[in-house]
Amino acid sequence: MTTTPKTPPRTTRLETLDEEMIRVLAAKTGAERLAIAAGMFRSARRMVSSHLRQEHPDWDTAKVQREVALRISHGTG
Fold first, then answer.
1. How wide is the angle at C-alpha 61 spanned by C-alphas 57 and 64, nearest 5°?
2. How far, in Å, CA of 54 to CA of 48, rounded?
3. Distance (Å, rounded) from C-alpha 71 to C-alpha 69?
4. Which DSSP symbol is given to 76?
């Protein structure tokens, strides 16, 4: 009898901010916090795009952009 390997269960990892980081972020204006979030989003898009281009060198720019959008939106696009 053959058995198929089981996929290990997914674990949830929660990270918390320390008190100093909470103070730093709380001192920022809404616009500053939004700018930080936008920069993080751009960085994530660049990283996913770079990964996809390396994994799929045959994909054109439009295909990479579509896949990045799909992955960033968790498939809800």
1. 70
2. 10
3. 6
4. -
